TrEMBL record:
Domain of life: Bacteria
Family: Belongs to the UPF0065 (bug) family.
Protein known as: Tripartite tricarboxylate transporter substrate binding protein
Annotated Pfam families: TctC
Lineage of the organism: Bacteria, Bacillati, Actinomycetota, Actinomycetes, Pseudonocardiales
Length: 331
């Protein structure tokens, strides 16, 4: 007889007894089979309330509740260290069938930069759900009119260009480092100034404090349309709907395409059936009208991917970001 079977039978035997010791009660609870996310859904947003991960988690929660896809649900904010504190929490809950955690580009960078003992690869990959892409922008009166101009300026005076974007290790920073590397500029030649978000970076750019900016296309498309900023290129595989007249880096002869993606992972140690159930659950969740509205309202691109396709993507992106952070001297 297995330990779990013995515990289950023991629990049945004590039904009706008013006083049960705390240890026995906890053991009984652990022994009961869980109905998983359809019974209780917990989504870890590994950041403070109000940011991108938190917004995504609450949109998922709304879609689940509106469609009766779970009995109860909660969003659990575990902030700190680029998401790696939340990651460590999930990794230390093997077999948890009620919890999904948001992850993505930022967390992969944070794992490398912070030397996190827990890695995204330690979790159970479930699905990629959204992505967006960066643009490279300059003030309208900048002498830099193309990416060729930018590369030449970097090569002629490494470190002279003030380059801005999001936090250290963000997609903006990783993309800037990759592009500088393509230009033959080492980490010392990348004068990168981190900002709290795209709005702050745009203000610095328009205020003359930066020469070049890296930001999500939907953060700078209005300024490009009004002529305040000029977009040199986008880092997407194809042209962006936000900036349809702006070429991709690949069109400019630079083989770089990087996305700020978000996805869902589960605890390690799930058996194949539970993993499949979670994948199917998320597939159902992102097919709901509420989630489609969330994509439109937040200017997110649908990037649903699951199974072996997502697992391969995650391995490739992890290796790519590890290579970039190492080249930048961040890990």
């Amino acid at each position: 007889m297995t330990v779990r079977t013995a515990l289950t039978r023991g629990c049945a035997a004590v039904v009706g007894i008013a006083l049960i010791g705390a240890g026995v009660g906890e053991a009984c609870e652990a022994a009961r089979p869980s109905a998983g996310v359809r019974d209780k859904l917990r989504i870890i947003a590994p950041a403070a309330p109000g940011g991108g991960w938190d917004t995504t988690a609450r949109e998922l929660q709304n879609a689940a509740e509106a469609n009766g896809l779970t009995g109860t649900s909660e969003v659990l904010n575990i902030e700190g260290a680029g998401g790696t504190i939340g990651l460590a929490r999930l990794v230390n809950q093997p077999g948890d069938t009620n919890t999904l955690m948001l992850t993505g580009t930022t967390m992969l960078g944070a794992v490398e930069i912070n030397g996190s003992p827990a890695e995204v690869g330690d979790t159970t990959p479930i699905a990629k759900i959204t992505e967006d892409f960066d643009a490279i922008v300059v003030p309208a009166d900048s002498p830099l009119r193309t990416t060729d101009d930018l590369v030449r300026a970097w090569r002629s005076a490494p470190g002279a260009l003030a380059v801005g974007g999001g936090s250290i290790g963000s997609l903006d920073h990783l993309l800037a480092g990759s592009l500088a590397g393509e230009a033959g500029v080492g980490p010392a030649g990348l004068n990168y100034i981190a900002h709290s978000g795209g709005g702050e970076m745009v203000a610095s750019l328009l205020g003359g404090h930066l020469d070049v900016g890296f930001a999500n296309t939907n953060e700078i498309s209005d300024q490009v349309e009004t002529g305040e900023l000029r977009a040199l290129a986008v880092a997407s595989p194809e042209r962006s709907e936000d900036l349809p007249d702006t070429p991709t880096l690949r069109e400019r002869g630079i083989d770089i395409a990087m996305s700020n993606w978000r996805g869902l992972v589960a605890a390690p140690g799930l058996d194949p059936e539970r993993k499949r159930e979670m994948q199917e659950y998320v597939a159902h969740l992102v097919s709901t009208p509420q989630w489609r509205d969330a994509l439109a309202n937040n200017n997110w691109l649908n990037a649903f991917q699951t199974g072996t396709e997502f697992e391969q993507f995650l391995r490739t992106d992890t290796e790519n970001i590890r290579r970039i952070t190492t080249r930048l001297g961040l890990s």
